[in-house]
Design goal:
Strand content: 15-25%
Bound molecules: zinc ion
Shape: globular
CATH topology of the largest domain: Metallo-beta-lactamase, Chain A
CATH architecture of the largest domain: 4-Layer Sandwich
Radius of gyration: 22 Å
Number of domains: 2
Length: 461
């Protein structure tokens, strides 16, 4: 599994151009044989394990604001490799812009990541019409540069293995200047309904690790407990004649929750109720099915025996009217709608209609970023401004603790299995969480230097 080490050691530097003490706009520039100015990348271009590599290029969406990586245009034109760890926009949303600025490098990613990124970027362009730094033709151009990698089959000094976070998500081992850098991307150390847990046991000189739930107090309940809690909350709402809205990210939690509900209804533990899929969730479901090879064996087997195919449940429904009156007219319904943090998408329309009624319940199932409407509701907001309407919020607000990310325990046990580390960089977390995880990893890897990089900081390894 391990990549062959290069004998010659060169100066390797990493620049933290996003996801530094924040969640969002993940972007790291690894330069080998240079001081980080990009000056020598031409010299080293095309040589495996050397040159300039970009790890992810995402956007940060907080409230109505957007932030991009602090990557300079000249840096984009001189890249030798681009690596995309997974499809989520906080990792992929800036990639087309990089290619628009003259990047000609191959973009390494798995097939599900390519398929999902295509759909996500199209949706991103549609929602932010005219306000994105690139357009459809830039997306097409960027995706043409895709070089698909499978787990366990390295190429050009890049090795992917399963990260367990969403379908096709990868942990990257990168050869650069004779050093090995391990980039966790977003990881989950527990198996879910659809995915196996992330692979563990690596050897690397440097680790770049996420810290979304990096505080020792961040402890996820077991999948079973979280599932039971969610189902009880749904049943309670249905019993009092209410409807349930579950805001979901297009990719990841949405599909997991859907399979969970289907399973509970199938076994009679949850009342048979129509489950409406609104927005990107249903489109993405098809991609999941097409890429079933990246799902757990058990799911692959169920697809093969057609009467047990979990993708084809009698409970799934697609809204038939533009104003969703068919959904709202239902006596009982569970609605899965994007977007997950209430930044936009069909979920807002449901809030307008169902938010004022205390019989209804909204259940959050994922991380709510600082400054988002989702975070506001979790913090007790009693009204929401949607377009020009101030909507009173009387529905119940609940949180089911599902996560596609490892918690503190998961992150530390992942890191524990890595040998040879001399530098550890903590990213993709609110500052206090990154620092808390750094403290724990420092105790575990006594010979490694711990860094919580600032935005734009460049560090030599
Ligand atoms: Zn992610
Ligand atoms: Zn992320």
């Amino acid at each position: 599994m391990a990549l062959e080490r290069h004998k010659v050691s060169t100066i390797v530097s990493i620049q933290f151009l996003g996801a530094a003490s924040e969640v969002g706009r993940s972007c790291f520039l690894v330069e080998a044989g240079a001081s980080g100015t990009g000056a020598s990348s031409k010299m080293t271009a095309g040589r495996p394990g050397r040159g300039t590599t970009l790890l992810d290029a995402g956007v940060k969406i907080a409230g109505d604001e957007e932030e991009f990586p602090v990557l300079e245009n000249r840096q984009m034109a001189s890249l030798d490799r681009v690596i995309l760890s997974h499809a989520h926009l906080d990792h992929s949303g800036y990639i087309p812009y990089v290619y628009k600025q003259g990047c000609t490098a191959p973009a390494y990613m798995t097939k599900p990541t390519r398929d999902l990124t295509q759909v996500l970027l199209a949706d991103y362009l549609r929602i932010n019409e005219g306000c994105t730094p690139y357009d459809e033709k830039d997306v097409v151009h960027a995706l043409k540069k895709t070089d698909m990698l499978e787990y366990g089959k390295p190429k050009d000094g890049v090795h992917f293995s399963n990260a367990g976070h969403i379908i096709g998500s990868a942990v990257t081992e990168l050869e650069a200047g004779g050093k090995k850098i391990l980039y966790s991307g977003d990881i989950n150390d527990r198996e879910t309904r659809l995915l196996d847990a992330c692979q563990i046991g690596y050897n690397a000189d440097a680790l770049i690790i996420e810290s979304t739930y990096g505080d020792p107090l961040d402890r996820h309940p077991s999948l079973k407990d979280a599932s039971n809690q969610l189902v009880q909350c749904i049943q309670k709402t249905l019993d009092r004649g209410g409807k349930v809205i579950i805001p979901t990210f297009a990719i990841g939690r949405g599909q997991e929750i859907l399979f969970l509900l289907e399973n509970y209804m199938r076994s009679g533990l949850l009342e048979d109720t129509p489950i409406y899929l609104d927005g990107m969730v249903s489109k993405v479901l098809r991609i999941y099915r097409h890429n079933a090879l990246f799902l757990k064996k058990e799911i692959q087997n169920r697809i093969l025996s057609s009467e047990d195919d979990p993708f084809k449940s009698v409970h799934y429904r697609i809204p038939q009217t533009k104003d969703r009156s068919d959904v709202l007219a239902q006596e009982k319904a569970i609605i899965l709608a994007t977007s997950g943090m209430l930044n936009g998408g069909p979920v807002l329309n449901y809030i307008k209609h169902l938010g004022p009624d205390e019989k209804n319940t909204m259940i959050f199932t994922g991380y709510q970023g600082v400054g988002t409407r989702g975070r506001q509701l979790l913090e007790g907001a009693k009204e929401l401004q949607l377009d020009d309407t101030l909507v009173p919020i009387n529905m119940q607000i609940q949180e089911a603790k599902f996560s596609g990310h490892a918690d503190f325990q998961g992150l530390t046990s992942f890191a524990k299995t890595i040998s040879g580390l001399k530098d550890i960089f903590i990213v993709h977390g609110e500052k206090a969480k990154s620092e808390a995880l750094g403290k724990a990893l420092g105790k575990m890897h006594k010979n490694a230097e711990i860094h919580v990089p600032a935005l734009g900081e460049e560090i030599r390894i």
